[in-house]
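Can you give me the bound-state structure? Components:
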Amino acid sequence: MSENYDVIVVGGGNAALCAALAAREAGRRVLVLERSPEHARGGNTRHTRNIRCSHAAGDQFFSGPYSEEEHLQDLIGVTGGPANLDLAKLAIRESSTLPGWMSAHGVHWQQPLAGTLHLGRTNRWFLGGGKALLNTYYLKAERMGIEVRYDALVDDLVIENNRFEAVRLKNENGGELIRARAVVVAAGGYEANIEWLKRHWGDAADNFIIRGTPYNDGTLLAALMKHGAKSIGDPKGFHAIAVDARAPKFDGGIVTRLDVVPFGIVVNRDARRFYDEGEEIWPKRYAIWGTLIAGQPGQIAYGIVDAKAIDRFLPPMFKPYQADTLEALAPQLGLDPATFVNTVTEYNRAAAGNMELRMEKLDGNCTRGLAPAKSNWALPIDHPPYYGLPLRPGITFTYMGVEVDECARVVDQSGQAFQNVFAAGEIMSGNILTKGYLGGFGLTIGSVFGRLAGREAAEIARA
Amino acid sequence: MPGLDIIQEAGRQLVICNACRYCEGYCPVFRAIETRRDFKQGDVFYLSNLCHDCRACYYACMYTPPHEFAINIPQILAKSRIETYRRWSWPDFLGRAFKNRSVTVFLATGLAALVAVLALLFIPSENLYAAHLGPGSFYEVVPYLAMVAGALILFFYGIAVWLRGGARFWSETRSAINERGNWKTLAAAVGAALGLRYLKGGGPGCFYPDERPSSVRRVYHSLTFWGLTSDFVSTSLAFVYQDFFHILPPYSLTSAPVILGSVGGVALLIGTCGLIYYKLQSDREPEAPAASGMDYVFLVTLGLTALTGMLTLILRATTAMGSILVLHLACIAALFVTAPYGKFVHAVYRTLALIRYETEQSQPHHSVGH
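Here's the bound-state model for the whole set.
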């Protein structure tokens, strides 16, 4: 048993690194324990690309002002209200200081990526995306003398009398205890733990695709709960979008998402439509389709478009299935041709007369007398070739986490905070996000609470 | 066709990049990707010459091996780039130099040796090993006509092969995007080429020799390029001095040819040594081995040319002048003869790719998917 550290950070993503940097800047000896190998370090941060921040005025990278009030309203709009309003306000208030802090730690910025201009006022893009951001932080950490260990799986914490004593690092001999004066747990959610998902979703979980790191299996979340931490958030809840069914089980990231939904129709395994594809384009369609498909038989669906629409959305990574007739497309997708042709024909009849696809707004081109309706962008699918893209739920993150207080300290069942146990990032984002998602806000939570946890841990660990 | 696998593999990777776009801020390659939907041979050839090998995208990519998507854009584009160098070279049997660096080495040393042998055969040894002073002393060793004729033949031969290659680049990489360049797009492209704008990794610098961004590549490349340019101007000036003003070399230490030549020579020497030094330590993962071999041959030839040039200046009043002059001329011959069959050609294709890029970007178009 060794005690060479003041603060141990468990995890290796954005929140973990923000905590480590903040604690080190306060003069503490810091150890970061990242369970993944070095090449895969950084958890889900690797797949991020921007961060949402409040700001009084636009600048070189923000196209206009974004007040704290508006920021909060946006958050309430998508989540239906944060679980803890005070923590949400804290994140939003502190977010305005993040661009400066990140720049000071070596982060470079870029203009919003093509096709994301609608986020140019509220979100800020770091150059090269999440892995580049992580590389910058890791380089900074190395220069500041923060020790980082990879392939370092922490499987439990030693907590006695509400006080953290040590982490248990798994190794060939069972485990090694590493002591420290405080711990920051920033080890992500449990979306990559299929067995855990099965407790709530049954065998359907076998058909889920996990968009991010395979290392988020909730080991630390389970350990904290075992030690009496109070959980917060729907244990069944996750954020999921529609991704290509051919995506890898884990870690496919951004490139497997499909923007096909509003451009055509979506049918299930039985070749029938099941939801209004034209309800909304952004950000709702992004957020609801994963869960919708999770509720369909076999957890699969197929986006169908014709030649008019195929070039209108971001080119997919996997080639669409393609045929000159609907009858020929159906067997490629494993659909019953008669039912499929009937579904498209009925839809086409209800959409007859709609001519032009105007994606920049809800264009009101709806179907007539069809259930479910398609309320916008309902153009007949009648220009061959026809295309089909298989869709599955792609899980981004899970909502349930541990409850924290305004110092990012983990709270126990009785409502009392553990003195020297802090949490940041996805493992505590359920304090703010209850459902839905606001683009770039995951990193906002991770950065604000990571930094806060690092500073508070440093304070507690003061010699 | 041997390059087909490379084009297919590049196409596979570029489609993934197009679905991601995180690297858009790094360089023109990614912005050019976004105006395309699929990647045919011409697109791959164009993009591979547009790539400056700054490697920022490699370190930023979450899909590099061992990820199953196995994205390695600098490497696959370098492989394709060599393919284009060979393809657009002429004649075919010399174009093999791009695949096999021993052909280049053979070509360079062969010609250098030829120059040396000719010098030994035709220059009387009392001339070669004597000290020469005063106007025209160099030509007492090597006759002026032999020097100028040899240089001009190799020079214009090289230019002709370059022009031919450039024309093939232009016709084979034509894309569907309507292009009409003007002086503004041309100026932007030339400015980007001369300033090495895209060796900045979008801001922090090239990710070279490893994952830490730095400006070493840009600095040493600039020294090399401007050093060479300075030497070229110096030589041209000397040509003007003697053939138009009838002032024969050697020129005084304060004359324009000597100042430009010396400054250029030093810059070239430092530049090439720096590039070789960092290349030796550079990360092997994002590179294509054949490209690297070609780079070394080019850098060593350039460096030796600068070194022997500087020595000629320093030793010009001694008995060693004759030998070192012959050596210098041999290096220049090697440099010229390998110019169309080595790394030198990147200057032609990359500049043309930048012109194509600036022209494309100046057209009204939408990136695909929006």
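A couple of observations. Chain A has a mean pLDDT of 95. The CA atoms of residues 23 and 455 of chain A lie 5 Å apart.
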